[in-house]
């Protein structure tokens, strides 16, 4: 097993809610910064007055991924004064299924022994050997969780089923590295929808653009603003009034996609977009095609567009594209505009 796989985990922590309804950060190995701890406490459902529990949430902050698994204490247990607890794992990689599985094992260990020491032993076993094994608490093997499976776990077919031809807006925004904000009051719906979107630009295989669970809080928004393009999820309806944060706004409960006024020129649609949109819808609506096949169909079309762009760029100096090169082709205005902005996103533009 590659050593680098085990080096992806950064820390494991524990948040508890006690019989007095107090929620505390009680343990962490190794230590995390006060800033990150504040963010993680905000993401933890036990920190809120609401009785609603979120079994598993994940997100990204300052290039680290966090995974929170929350459990209600069940008898028999060594935890006499605790009603609920959350296992917090931070890591360098996006792999929700991997860390959800490992957290479930750690939850069972903690429920049984009531001591972070046993949890730390499990964490160190995975860190050093890539495996955490026990008869009564279940086993976890790190190599069972390929990152490509994590990339493919979201459903593009579901996205298209919800938005149909408007999916082309999402595709265009992702291709041009624009800022997409998604709103839904339920965090689970946000996570499920947002994690699928980077697959529309499969040639990049870049899930670092994903920030699926963001609060309207200064530090988190500063972190978001430091990224040039992103897919960000919010549960706060106030985000609809924050056009400074998005080029494209997706209102999931209302099935609406809106392009912000300031982004309309770059996002202008034409014949090429219609053609791509039809391809996406046709592929996704084919009951015999799997999500992987739909992603491949879109990817083939994307590669065709990119190879045309590269051949246009090769006509210019330094294999870079200029607006003059594009204009000499007498392309439809929307296609010319899209290719010009795409060249910028793909670093093929001569400045």
UniProtKB/TrEMBL annotation:
Boundaries of every UDENN domain copy: 1-351
Primary location recorded for the protein, binned into one broad class: other
PANTHER family per UniProt: DENN DOMAIN-CONTAINING PROTEIN 10-RELATED, PROTEIN FAM45A-RELATED
GO molecular function terms noted in the UniProt entry: guanyl-nucleotide exchange factor activity; small GTPase binding
Full protein name: UDENN domain-containing protein
Compartment list: Late endosome
GO biological process, one term: protein transport
Domain of life: Eukaryota
Family: Belongs to the DENND10 family.
Matches recorded under Pfam families: SPA
Keywords on record: Endosome, Guanine-nucleotide releasing factor
InterPro entries, per database record: FAM45, Tripartite_DENN
Signal peptide limits: none
Gene Ontology CC terms: late endosome
Organismal lineage: Eukaryota, Metazoa, Chordata, Craniata, Vertebrata
